[in-house]
Amino acid sequence: MELSDIDNIELLYLQFEDYLEIKDVMVSAYSSMPGAYWGEEHISALLKKFPEGQVVIKVNGQIAGCALSIIVDYDKFDENHTYREITSNYTFNSHTPDGDVLYGIDVFIKPEFRGLRLGRRLYDYRKELCEKKNLKGIAFGGRIPNYHKYSHEISPKEYIEKVRRREIHDPVLNFQISNDFHPTRIMQGYLEGDAASKEFAVLLEWDNIYYEKPAKKAAIKKKVVRLGLIQWQMRPYKDVASLMQQAEYFIDAVSGYRSDFALFPEFFNAPLMAQNNHLSEAEAIRELAKHTSDIVQQFSAFSISYNINIVAGSMPEIINGKLYNVGYLCKRNGTVERYEKLHVTPDEAKVWGMQGGNELKVFDTDCGKIGILICYDSEFPELSRLLADEGMDILFVPFLTDTQNGYSRVRNCAQARAIENECYVAIAGSVGNLPNVHNMDIQFAQSMVFTPCDFAFPTNGIKAEATPNTEMILIADLDIDLLRELHRFGSVRNLKDRRKDLFVLKKK
Question: Which residues are marked as active site?
């Protein structure tokens, strides 16, 4: 059939009244396998058990193709299952509405309608059905009908590799791979009588990137996450109470916009050092560290009362006599987790005698997995890559920079992290001056939210940006599902396409 002859294409649920026409389509589609068609009792059983899974595609009112499927509890079947086993001896009693995988029973297109990409429409319907039913994915045994031509020379595994490299053309397997199904194993003796495939089949699977494991708690995992970045003005505070009053003001503001996270900058509490400016820089910051515990306690109380997760920038902390730059993630469920700056700057080490931390980890939140790197750490790409390998969706970078040079390093590296790790990155810094605090006298910042650079995101990779050197808040919504699509279908796939055969990155 020519494209010019097509007036109408419809995707419809299969009806039992269609059986005779369906049989005719099957007979012509499987002309090389005489008698390979479903009986009335088979179609009747499928329609009774799972009507949504059986669809036909009509061209000008004529059935051109069909897709049949069931839902199975996949763990109950061996990886080397046969077609007879998966269909319970063709009764389809293996179908269970409570299963977790959509299993493809059959897809066929009448020869005269091939070349119109109708098969793609049927596969797309299955994918949408899988997502609608919140199933883990789709699986089926794919025939390799050209294998008989090469079986005396190469194994099925070698055959599949040659097909993938386009050295051998296999119309069925090529089509399935092009539709995002990935071969997982070879199954021997899968379909009885399939001489063309030598009774071998390829187990093909498609993963539902939107699958969510049924929750046991009354909670919904958010798919659109709202961030509230606080571009903090450095100003004199007489005590911790007045500092936290200003912090609460900002938390109240961003939570009023129903933000899921509030991000504070690195060393936002530095103004409290003014009262110890008569001491050396190293002594003054150690005095500042005495307030850290109280500040964290108050942040935790705010996270609960304002129903918001708080990334509490960073503060100095003394452990066993050593000075560290640390921060705390105060979750709205009341739990508190700690993170450390791993790479201290030469200035931090020289002036304050600060030590680098030792722990790097991803944090589980009600909005997905996040990572937190303090300022200079964002300039070491290995750290964020390790976090990405653990499933990080959003990277938070609280920072403090005195000059535009220092800010540019953080900004440009943070944007690179978003692209190379296919994640969102939020950076927040402080602005203004502190004339009465040695080594913290000037600040430069422009808080921003970065995205990967692909069609679903801003073309320049910038989701939102604050006004430079101005006290303000920045609100941005991040769609986590867009990351899932990017990982799988992006124009480029930085995580997936890594040459792990040449290099490996891992924690010690």
Answer: 266, 341, 375
